[in-house]
């Protein structure tokens, strides 16, 4: 005899789960509304569920119940968890606590060196980080500071020249530091006649 209207039973409420409302986890079917953490009752999805045998939990409650125990094992980097999960109905066994890691760097001079070694922009004197660094004249510059010292024109590798630690466009460099005299752009036709 056919099983009319029958389907898989929900792992939480034991009622029939129809295809349109079905979520499968660990070989079991659940209603979308029943797919909740067994401890805190938070709604779950495929990225937040953690299954243990026939039970489903959010990753936080799963970690509290089945994860490593002791000092230094918390929810996130560097977190100290003292939450026992009692308010969630989790019975946790107390294991031997593990020693906490030191909170200071193991080699403070190495850490301090990273901070001190940040390049400084010759124009503004502020730190130049990799994302904003342009090299010119053998020095690091901010993209916004990479301009001609005389006219303020934005520079590129094709039109930059440097003199005494300062950057210039080729036109300003030629006018101020290039050769002078007739034929070099230093004198005009009117000046030649006088």
From TrEMBL:
Name of the featured protein: CSRP3 protein
Main location: nucleus
InterPro entries in the cross-refs: Znf_LIM (IPR001781)
GO molecular function annotation: actinin binding; metal ion binding; structural constituent of muscle
Matches recorded under CDD domains: LIM1_CRP3, LIM2_CRP3
GO CC terms in record: nucleus; Z disc
Domain LIM zinc-binding: 8-68, 119-179
Pfam families for the chain: LIM
The encoding gene: Csrp3
Species of provenance: Rynchops niger (Black skimmer)
Subcellular location: Nucleus
SMART domains from the UniProt entry: LIM
Lineage, broadest ranks: Eukaryota, Metazoa, Chordata, Craniata, Vertebrata
Keywords: LIM domain, Metal-binding, Nucleus, Repeat, Zinc
